[in-house]
Amino acid sequence: MVTPRSLRPPEPHPIPLGSLFPGTDRPDVGVSGITLDSRLVQPGDLYVALPGRSTHGARFAAAAVDAGAAAVLTDAEGAALAAGLPAAVVVVADPRRAMAGAAADIFGRPSERLTMLAVTGTNGKTTTSYLLEAALRAAGRRPGLIGTIGFRLDGQALESARTTITTPESPELQALLATMREGGADSVVMEVSSHAVVLGRADAITFDVAGFTNFGRDHLDFHGTEEAYFEAKAELFTAARTRHAVVNIDDPRGRQLADRVRAGAAVRLTTTSLAPGADFFPDRIEPQTDGSSRLVLTTPLGQLDLVLGLPGEFNIANAVTAVAMLAAVDVDLDRAVTGLAAAQVPGRMQRVDLGPEAPTVIVDFAHTPQAVGSVLSSLAGRRCIVVLGAGGDRDVQKRGPIGAAAARGAAVVIVTDDNPRTEEPAAIRARVLEGAREVATSLTGGVEVLDGGDRRSAIRLALQRAGVHDVVAILGKGHEEGQEVSGTVHPFSDSAVVEQEWNVLNGGAA
Asked: Is residue 118 located within the same domain as residue 131?
């Protein structure tokens, strides 16, 4: 299969290298694109050679120049490696930070011609982004969407090579924004990860509004401490990065962030909550038999009636945050909220329909203790069998808490492999099992904890154990179409495997 190229405007307009980097010794060299992946170089590109964990990007500079790169942006170490190349070499102390501004200039600073909405938080970024997209479309806008699941324009997927999971690197991001603008977008909803803030991926963008969903333990393998992780999130809510902050204050970190924004006075603040005391909160919640909810929101603009199609209290919180963000950018709320009834998010509380004589099966991306607890609490009232694990080469300290959260919310916990990556799968499962069993022994409800082995076997076991009135929650991978084991990504879709295994258990073909 051919790897899709990066999304870029179809007709690039070269700009002089000297306008990007005054003082360069070859200011008249024309630059029409930018990339940090030598495999994606197009003629006229500025190739960005960054230092990496295992090698320096400048080692690929020759290949980039052979592919048509007009110039190389790098640091002193990279310049030594790129010496003698028939291309201009620009040397800066921090090429990662420099490339964000350069990318914005090369592609015409597209964010300045779009309404930009950012969403961050430990959980709920993708769901809130999809709710915003649905609401903007219902209000007559033409939104772009950038996030974990992919790129979309006005509800249609855009196929592209990707450099990161959630927020693209700045060259890809700026090119994507320009492509969306030329495709007719008037607004863009972006998931902005903590990694993106620390690594400067969203530099050179000032968002019209940024929303904060919640905060919990995650990504400590990258940030080191919970405090550093929080500070990365909080950086998005400074005057250099956003004009308006919408902050959910249902957890302590949300309240801390709101207090900080309020004290700074440079960014407008709107608060949201599931309880009174915030600017936006639900005054009445009426759950419906199909899993949807009818809501009456109290807002500074008056009460607002809406229907939310997604189940779960945490999705109500996401919806309230989305509505407050829409209000912050002056969207017609009466029209916008009509889009929330039918909004769907792949791999987020996604129901896999197996027919009338089957258990209810839910697939969700929940992969933190907080998210696991939230999903299972939304399924309370029915016997629940949960299938989950923890990722390899990531924060090892959250593995036990993930198991513990599962044991608190389910009758049967089946521990399996998530994405083991380069770690031994059984060793990861052992840590999750330990956390689940520690909680299970302290409960009187008789929680059963099982080692389900590989993911397909665990899903099969869950379906075998489930009765027609039970619910099976398969957590951790959600929308993902692959599973990384020993450094190789194998095709694997939780929803597809559920259907295959159910067919086999009922005498059909896989």
From this structure: yes
